Amino acid sequence: MNVNCYILSREKLFEKMKPNSICIIWAKKECIRNGDVTYSYRQDSDALYLTGVNAPWYILILHKDENAQCTSLLFSDELSEKEKIWGSIRGTWEEYGRISWINQIYPFLEWEDYCKQLQNKNTIYYIQEELKDQIQWEIEAERIISFDSILSELRTIKNHYEIEAIRHAIHITWEAYSYIKKNLQPWMKEYEIEAMIAYIFRKNQATEAFPSIVASWEKSCILHYTQHTRTLQKNDWILIDFWAEYHGYSADITRSFSVWQELDRYREIHAAVSDIKNYAETLLKPGINISHWNNQVKDFAFTVCKKLWLPINKYTPLSNPYFPHSIGHFLWLDTHDVGNRSDALQEDMIVTCEPGIYIPEEWIGIRIEDDILITKNGYENLSKTLIK
């Protein structure tokens, strides 16, 4: 990942800070699975956004002095001899500096002395709520301000490097989809398809941003189905919702297709979902908000669903079970990323467009999802190369 990405992120946050202030961000801690084994580590998205360092046990300090001069510091211990022998997900100061482009790194022993300077700061910003409790005992409460909403607002607008990272995550997801289409056979287990996804992701130095959904036949009506135990049959259809995460940046794509032989009813519903999605995309541009967009598309979807002879009428809200979720969400470091659905979309925001129709009584669930970049005058479908 280009270091300019993290430099730009910090600069955006510095612009929001008052003179003679600091902002404190803690890296996420490891989580024990059992014994001395930890879960696979993923950094807190705010810390990742500002440093790119995907490792626990460091503190990021953003300092803006009285003259508006800005400095970034990290507090983190060097690797111990035990960590060097047994291995650690933490890195060296040299690695942290190379990734984040922060060259002022100090051991944790100096953190307590640094905290004494907080008394002289007009404003102390924090992101994590638990950090507030740690600093409030020695600082007046009115000087301690949450920066969570400000940082969330900044994260919704992507810079060039972030957009390119998401393009790459989408490309990796596309490669996994192509691999599945080439190797898919009846009588496979759903978990074999899940394994194909994991293989392609790891081969490209990516991970799953969220557990993949591989749902065939009646399981396709379960929105977040992850058991993956069913055996595919010749006349089955399958819904795959998968998302490569590359350097923390996530794709989010869904495709629905027949395993072998496509039935007429399935083709009809798939065409209906495609029509809804095409209509939804035409509405995307700066100025519209996700809540209003969702309502407009659902009005159109109601008309489409009536043509499918579903038991709905104008007095029946188009929700469960046929159209149970919203049309899309913000996308970025988190698959369901931060952002206010009532705020107007702006250039360089990224959202998903993912209509779906689910008919449990017919065992058919179809969703089509793409990742959409809001441009100056409209939108760009970043994942349009994946055959629907």
Biggest β-sheet: count, sense, barrel? Answer: 6 strands, mixed
Overall shape: it is: globular
Q: Tell me the total number of β-strands.
A: 19
| Rg | 24 Å
Termini gap: 30 Å
List the helices and strands and how they pair.
Elements: H1 4-16, E1 21-26, E2 32-34, E3 37-38, H2 45-51, E4 59-64, E5 70-75, H3 81-86, H4 93-100, E6 105-106, H5 111-115, E7 123-126, H6 129-135, E8 144-146, H7 148-155, H8 160-183, H9 190-203, E9 207-208, E10 213-216, E11 237-242, E12 244-246, E13 249-250, E14 253-258, H10 264-282, H11 290-307, E15 350-353, E16 356-359, E17 364-367, E18 370-374, E19 379-381
Parallel strand pairs: 1-7, 5-6, 7-8
Antiparallel strand pairs: 1-4, 2-3, 4-5, 9-12, 10-11, 11-14, 12-13, 15-18, 16-17, 18-19
Helix pairs in contact: 1-7, 8-9, 10-11
Short description:
This protein is an alpha+beta fold.
Overview of this protein structure:
This protein is of the alpha+beta class. The protein folds into two domains: about 5-155, Creatinase/prolidase N-terminal domain (Creatine Amidinohydrolase, Chain A, domain 1, 3-Layer(aba) Sandwich); about 160-380, Alpha-Beta Complex (Creatine Amidinohydrolase), CATH 3.90.230.10. About 35% of the residues lie in helices and about 20% in strands. The protein is built from eleven helices and 19 strands. The strands form six sheets. The chain has a six-stranded mixed β-sheet. Strands 9-12-13 form a three-stranded antiparallel β-sheet. A three-stranded antiparallel β-sheet has the order 10-11-14, with helices on one face. Helix 1 crosses helix 7 (about 150-155). The longest helix has 24 residues, at about 160-185. It is globular, with a radius of gyration of 24 Å. The mean pLDDT is about 90.
